[in-house]
């Protein structure tokens, strides 16, 4: 909790309730879809599939860089990591929660 307080001192005050809400939810449900406010894994993966289709339409040897803001526990990376588009790609996940 101390780390959170130190981090909170650097963030705009308006973000603090959001951080606390996500961290409470994550503590309740853990590293799964419900822990980051998805109804279930199927709904979460539908979104991932739609986003991944953007890359499937790209050149086969294209190297992509993805920065996932609000990456949570890394589920989108887990979904993408074995797709052909990520063979030469880069992925960075950022989240304001711990």
Report on this model:
By secondary structure, this protein is mainly alpha-helical. The model has no long low-confidence stretch (mean pLDDT 84). 46% of the residues lie in helices and 10% in strands. The N and C termini lie close together (10 Å). Strands 1-2 form a two-stranded parallel ribbon. The protein is built from 4 helices and 2 strands; from the N terminus they run αααβαβ.
Throw out a few tags for this protein:
single chain; 98 residues; mainly alpha; two-stranded parallel sheet; globular
Topology:
Layout lengths: L1 H9 L5 H14 L11 H16 L8 E5 L5 H6 L9 E5 L4
Parallel strand pairs: 1-2
Structural class of the secondary structure composition? mainly alpha
End-to-end separation in angstroms reads 10 Å
Look at the structure and give the mean pLDDT: 84
Q: Please work out how many helical segments DSSP would assign.
A: 4
Shape: globular
Q: What's the total number of strands?
A: 2
- Kindly report the oligomeric state of this protein: single chain
Helical content stands at: 40-55%
- Strand content is 5-15%
What Rg do the Cα atoms give?
A: 16 Å
Summarize the structure.
The protein is mainly alpha-helical and 98 residues long. It has helices at residues 2-10, 16-29, 41-56, 75-80, and strands spanning 65-69, 90-94.
């Amino acid at each position: 909790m101390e780390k959170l307080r130190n981090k909170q001192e650097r963030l705009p005050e308006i973000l603090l309730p959001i951080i606390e809400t996500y961290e409470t939810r994550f503590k309740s449900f853990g590293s799964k879809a419900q822990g980051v406010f998805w109804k279930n894994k199927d709904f979460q993966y539908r979104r991932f599939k739609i986003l991944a289709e953007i890359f499937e339409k790209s050149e086969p040897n294209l190297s992509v860089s993805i920065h996932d803001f609000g990456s949570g526990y890394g589920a989108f990376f887990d979904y993408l990591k074995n797709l052909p588009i990520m063979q030469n790609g880069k992925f960075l996940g950022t989240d304001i929660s711990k």
